[in-house]
Specification:
This protein has a 3-stranded antiparallel β-sheet with strand order 1-2-3. The protein has a single domain, classed as Orthogonal Bundle (Arc Repressor Mutant, subunit A). It starts with a strand and ends in a 6-residue tail after the last helix. The protein is α+β, with helices and mostly antiparallel strands. It contains 3 helices and 3 strands. Helix 1 packs across helix 3 and helix 2 packs across helix 3.
């Protein structure tokens, strides 16, 4: 069952074990983030995985959204 969880981001238990992916692809958001964290330019990530810059940006926005929603515990 396909579920849209953010613009251009979907989850489907039958695709990548239900991890968030770019809509219409099997490219996981975490794959995009890992490549950028390793130093790959977003435009190169788009080219490597046959994505648009808009799709790569959607993955980054989704990750930012998760961080912004994270609850912080006072220490």
């Amino acid at each position: 069952m396909l579920k849209t969880i953010a613009p251009l981001i979907t989850i489907n238990p039958g695709v990548r074990f239900g991890r968030p992916t770019i809509k219409g692809t099997r490219v996981a958001v975490e794959t995009i983030l890992a490549e950028i964290a390793a130093g790959m330019a977003p435009t190169d990530v788009a080219r490597e995985y046959r994505l648009t810059r808009r799709q790569v940006a959607a993955a980054l926005r989704y990750a930012l959204q998760l961080i912004e929603e994270e609850r912080h515990v006072a220490i």
